Every structure is written in C-alpha cells, then in structure tokens.
Amino acid sequence: MELRSVLKPLDIKGTRLRNRIVFPAFQANYATRDGFVTERITRLYEKLAQGGNGMIIVGRIAVSDDGAPNTNPLRLNSDEHIPGLNELFSIIKKRGAAPAVQLMHAGRQTVSAMTGHPVVAASAIPCPVLKEMPIELDTEGIKRIQDDFTSAAGRAKKAGAELIELHGAFGYLIGGFLSPYSNKRDDEYGNDKSLFFTEIIEKVRRKTGDIPISCRISGDEFVDGGLKFEDMRQVSQKLVEAGADVISVSAGTYASMEHMAPTISMGIGLHVYLAKGIRDSVDVPVICSDNIRTIENANEIVSENKADLVAICRPQVADHFFVKKSIRGEPVVECLDCGSCLYFLKGETSVSCPQNPEI
Length: 359
Ligand SMILES: Cc1cc2nc3c(=O)[nH]c(=O)nc-3n(C[C@H](O)[C@H](O)[C@H](O)COP(=O)(O)O)c2cc1C
Known about the structure:
- The protein has helices at 39-50, 82-94, 112-115, 139-159, 173-178, 188-191, 195-208, 229-242, 272-279, 295-303, 314-318, 322-328, and strands at 10-12, 15-17, 21-23, 55-62, 74-75, 98-104, 120-121, 135-136, 164-168, 213-218, 246-250, 286-288, 309-311.
- It is an alpha/beta fold and 359 residues long.
- It has one domain: TIM Barrel, CATH 3.20.20.
- α1 (39-50) runs parallel beside α2 (82-94) and α4 (139-159) packs parallel to α7 (195-208).
- The longest helix is centred in the middle third of the chain and has 21 residues, at 139-159.
- The chain is globular, with a radius of gyration of 19 Å.
- 52% of the residues are buried.
- Flavin mononucleotide is lined by residues 24-27, 59-60, 102, 167, 169, 216, 250, 261, 289-292, 311-314, 341-342, 351.
- Flavin mononucleotide binds at residues 24-27, 59-60, 102, 167, 169, 216, 250, 261, 289-292, 311-314, 341-342, 351.
C-alpha cells in the first residue's frame, strides 16, 4: 500500500512536521523528583525521533507542584528546568522530529500526600477514583494557575519547543472546568465552562507569540452527566476562536479510564469518529488517537480526511522504530496490549514494556 497521505509533511504556523505521525504525551514517570530531564528520558525520545515520528510531544509536564499527577513528572515551574529541556529538544530536532510539550495541572486527579499541597479543582467534588476532597479554586487561585500555565509555556518556548499542547483531556484541571460533571460553579467560570481554558489559550498566546498551540480534549467523557461528543464540537469551536491551532482528540476521564488508553478488545481506532466529527466542526488540523496500530491504518485515516495527524503511543513504546520500519515494510515488535506500561494501575513506579527491554 502506498503511504502517500501519512508521509505528507504538514506545516502548522511555521512548525514543519515531516510526516503525520505523532508520538503523543506519555508520562513515564522517568524525571527526577524535582522534574528534571534524566538520561532515561533522553534515550527514549532520541530513539523515537530517530524512529521517524513527525512530532514528539514531551510530557505531560506539570506547570506547578500542586498540579503534579505523579511522583516524577517533568516540570516547568522554574527557569532551572529550561536547560535540560533545551538539550532534549535539540536532540529531538537533530533527529528530524518537531519537539513539542504538553503542559498540565492534575486538578482533583492527584493526591496531596504525593504533591505535598492541597488538591484543587473547579468544584469541591472528589475524583471518584482517587477520592480526595479538593478545595474549590477562588478567582485568585484560578489566575495563579493560569499564570503558571503561561509562565511554563514561555519557558517551553525558550527551551525550543515548537508546539505547546495544553492538556484539557481526561478530567484533569482544565478538563474538570470544562465538564458539567465536575464543574458546579455559579460564577463566570461555571456559566461558561470553557472560560478557564480559553483564558489560558489567550494568555499563552500573548506570552509566546506565534508558536502553535494544541488543545488536547476528551471528545466524549463517557460518564453520566459528563461531556458528550456534541458538546465537544462546540467546545472545540470556542478553543479555536480563542487561538488554538490544533485540536487533539482522545476520550475519557479517570471515571472512564478504559477510554484513556483502551485495550484492543475495545476496537481498533475506536475514537477516530470523535476526531472526524470535531474536524468537521473546526478549521484547524486535528490529531486522532487510540488503538491505531499500523501505519496503513494511519494512512487510511489521513487519506479519508478523518484526521490530519495520527497519534500512535503504545506501539511505539514496544518498538521505538515503529514508524521507520513500517515505512520500509519491515516487521515491528508488536505491542502485546498487556497493560504493563500502565504502571500506576499496577502499583509500579514507572513504565516498563516486556517487548522492549530498553524502556
Ligand atoms: C503510560 C501512559 C502514559 C500516558 N500519559 C499521557 C499523558 O501524560 N498525557 C496524555 O495526554 N496522554 C497520555 N497517555 C495517553 C496516550 O497519549 C494515548 O492517547 C493512549 O496511549 C492511546 O494511544 P495508543 O492506543 O496509541 O497507545 C498515556 C498513555 C500511557 C500508556
């Protein structure tokens, strides 16, 4: 099969992607406790860049200590984090991929025993999985965290990131504000549930100028009382009006975790219809993800205009040279769909993969 569509370069506001395959945000818990880049992180991303990706989204990266989702995420809450990321991005770029970051605040989907800070959220409603009662953010708290996103974005740009993704998916802080399921506020941030997110986009834009901004969202939360596909088409339009240059579509929250990194039994490309529906509603490139297991499938998705970019995560954890080998028609080391990489569900400290001893 000719791979013409998936191999076609794409320019997003001056950021050139050599092809349409994206290694999406993948929190492996490999940073130091203070959020600095380690050799293990550099090795992973260098291989993935060598392996042929068009873009690599490094992260997720916590914008503040109270927003840390795990013990060892990358962080960008101080200028001291810039040099390590700068070196990492240079390596990724030298290997031909566009280096990007994903910035996030975990909101109620973390615990104070781990962050050392109170858990905060749009409303005082605990995450049904982690169960810690969060403090409802007041206006001052909202502005502080929006400024944390803005400062982190400025640092990411200084470090050489060529695209900044804001993590609005999966029910973390931004997603928590978006959803009627977790946002019961009666102020302006409750009346317009997109406001927290659109203000961040506008602030990041003012801080970083022309750098492309991607917004990752859950195209459907798959929870009762949560955001549905039709809602997300409208939310996406608002994000684009506020300045988003890319929409990245996944699905689920902690309460519907099976959608966040779905097993193969849930279906190949099961959420591509969400990306397609959102792509039909906005005028910017859309990234799809979830159980896209072959480059031929990715090519089909792009050629049929269901998405502009295709995120492939776990198959590239199993084989960092997945893209290059697939292009050449060589066999890849296949992801076994065993869930070993979902270390947090297994009580392990970081990602591992039985198919890839190097990770
Ligand atoms: C261990 C692990 C960590 C992940 N971390 C993140 C993350 O930090 N941010 C994010 O948006 N998605 C994260 N994801 C979701 C992936 O980006 C991707 O959407 C998901 O794995 C489905 O794609 P796949 O079927 O190609 O693996 C993670 C997935 C895994 C397996």
